[in-house]
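Why does residue order matter? Because the sequence determines the fold. Keep that principle in mind as you read this record.
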Amino acid sequence: MALFTKENMTNHKTWGGRFKKSLDSRVAKFNASISFDNILYSYDILGSKAHVSMLAKQGLVNHEEEKIICDALIEIQKEIENGLHPLSDEYEDIHMFIEQILIKKIGDTGKKLHTGRSRNDQVALDLRLYARSSVSEIKNLLNDLCLALNELSKKHFENIMPGYTHLQQAQPITLGKHLEAYFFMFQRDVSRIDDWFKRMNFCPLGAGALAGSSLPLDRQFVADQLNFDGVIENTIDAVSDRDYIIEFCNIASIIMMHLSRLSEDFIIWATQEFNFLILDDGFATGSSLMPNKKNPDVLELIRGKCGRVFGHMVSILTIMKALPLSYNKDMQEDKECFFDTINTLKSCISIIIPFLYSITFNTDKMSYAVENSYLKATKILENLVLKGVPFREAHHMVGNYVAEAIEKNCRLEDIIPKEYV
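Structure:
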């Protein structure tokens, strides 16, 4: 079997028919996206197999050619997975790369694969297939995170701790109730993904460059083969839409914000000043200088990675904000920010789940903080209201009691009449 290498490929581009000069090597390097879009290879092959099956159904290739092409594409996927085809900027992107391997492998029959297709709708399809698969993985991770939080919430539902507003002690709550709040945050994130899926799961293939094709293509057949809910009817929209990337980057930003808030709570709780949480040695690091240190690096990295995900959301919005219809090369810049958003989100959720199972909550310290505080002030206020004292008068009375307790350095219960407590 002859492998596809720079040496045994004829030196031309798939679009080179009208060009009289070779592409300047500096432009080729600047123009190329194969260094990052190569991760789409399996989705490109999946889409191409569905496309050629449609071509055979419509009589645009015969069934023998369909089999030759599909078999070769399966071989190519295995070869890429085994590292047998070195990437090079010469091939511009993964789509042209695979097509040229195919032509080298099976000859002129391989040149029929692109019938009725443009790279515009091909790329749009690959990105949607990648998005659907990757976001499904993220949804599964979120469900695992929700399960972990739910288990911890039930385990600690009766453990009393201070609740905070403005990071000041406010009212007594339970640790379980606090953790449950994050459970509901991530449940909403799952529902956002479900809602996103309803809008994105439509097939762009068959839109061509922007205006479809005069060939007798069956777009619905391809959509059915690839488990889409339908086709994107407007072909201009099909190749130029990146709303689903923008929308997911927004969802990802919300998820990362939730992860960052959870991390921030735990970072504070793990301080010696709070001492509400004990970090597991397997999920903490030390200092190269200070032997006493135990650092919450996992949590700090999650908090820090918010910045890159937020930045990617702004990046894709900025890329798309002034583009005329339909496709423009600017849209090549959608991939790196999208890919990194997916990877960052996966890594953060994947590490926070075992982290949650590793930590120990210092529930005795939490309970002590409640008992040695003025957190019962609101409850005392409400007891006074139930006894007929007007709310504003009761509020003022309890405020005076708190001031007196602070001055005397004692508990509220020590100075308030027992019938009010």
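The first helix runs from residue 25 to 31.
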